[in-house]
Amino acid sequence: MTDLTAFDDKAQQGEAGFGDYVALLKPRVMSLVVFTAMAGMWVAPVHLHPFVAFCAILFIALGGGASGALNMWYDADIDALMRRTRGRPVPAGRIAPGEALGLGLGLSLISVVMLGLAANWFAAGFLAFTIFFYAVVYTILLKRWTPQNIVIGGAAGAFPPMIGWACATGGISIESLLMFAVIFFWTPPHFWALALFTKADYSNAGVPMLTVTHGRRVTRIHIFVYTLVLAVFAAALGLTSVGGPVYWAVAAVLNAMFIFGGWRILRRTDAESEADRHKVEKSFFTLSLVYLFALFAALMVQHSLGAYGLLS
């Protein structure tokens, strides 16, 4: 990490608003964490009291926000070099790096301790490991050193449904492991699609994203291969106790759409205009968000219908 003295000086001149502190927690990433954790908790065979479940989701969200703050603290130097991220609170000088670090560490401690008290200490330990994995393993160790950064580091974003399941059951299972696998194999094509139309950003910041180290063609091949692998795990999840006809129908449609989207990206060439390529890449990126939310929503609907005996 480069010297952040300049960011401290800028922060002293600026004035952070409430929205800056919200942005520091990466609310869009947090929404994914909350939703998938809630899905894992929802479909678990043990039901939590609604108040306990609410508290557990709240503290998981805080843990996700803590990870975001720690990530923004460490990455402020490269964020300042990327058009997509230079407006974030730390590189823009509205929040000092030390303040972001303090908030991230404080929220980490609060979220882990309170989740342990609200749910169980296994889930709390899992949350602590997830924060550590995202902030240290991905942000500090992997992101700047290997093009496999988003592949390995993506595990951090795949843990929330396992944490939600652990809140309810106190352990892990084949169902929670497959939910993890779905997000784990979804993450690379999701972020590589983003990297395809923001390649210059990663190149300028010196981040060894696959698009920078191996080029667009290799990245397109990887995206398509991962859509195929993802479809296998999404289908396998339907064979467990959380699957059923609703989930199967939704998963079949989503898998077909995602594979077709990956195939469209695979067929792109650098001979095409940048506008045409970016249109397909941005469309796939949007589709990837729909895919994940719809798939986990289908799990929740499947479970709810089964719980009320509507599918028995």
From TrEMBL:
Membrane disposition? Multi-pass membrane protein
Q: How is this protein named in the record?
A: Protoheme IX farnesyltransferase
Instruction: Determine if Nucleus is one of this entry's keywords.
Output: no
Does the record bear Transferase in its keywords? yes
Name the job this protein performs: Converts heme B (protoheme IX) to heme O by substitution of the vinyl group on carbon 2 of heme B porphyrin ring with a hydroxyethyl farnesyl side group.
Instruction: Extract the InterPro entries matched here.
Output: Protohaem_IX_farnesylTrfase, UbiA_prenyltransferase, UbiA_prenylTrfase_CS, UbiA_sf
Q: Which residues cross the membrane?
A: 29-45, 51-74, 95-115, 121-141, 223-240, 246-266, 287-311
Q: Which PANTHER family match?
A: 4-HYDROXYBENZOATE SOLANESYLTRANSFERASE (PTHR43448:SF7), PROTOHEME IX FARNESYLTRANSFERASE, MITOCHONDRIAL (PTHR43448)
**Subunit description:** Interacts with CtaA.
- Other remarks on this protein: Carbon 2 of the heme B porphyrin ring is defined according to the Fischer nomenclature.
Pathway field: Porphyrin-containing compound metabolism; heme O biosynthesis; heme O from protoheme: step 1/1
Q: Which reaction is this enzyme known to catalyze?
A: heme b + (2E,6E)-farnesyl diphosphate + H2O = Fe(II)-heme o + diphosphate
Organism encoding this protein? Paracoccus pacificus
Localization (cell): Cell membrane
